[in-house]
Amino acid sequence: QVQLVESGGGLVQAGGSLRLSCAASGRTFSSYTMGWFRQAPGKVREFVAAISGWRGSYADSVKGRSTISRDSNTVYLQMNTLKPEDTAVYYCAADTKSTSRWGTGDAMEYWGKGTLVTVSS
Question: Of 3, 30, 32, 49, which residue is most buried, by most CB within 10 angstroms?
Answer without folding.
Answer: 49
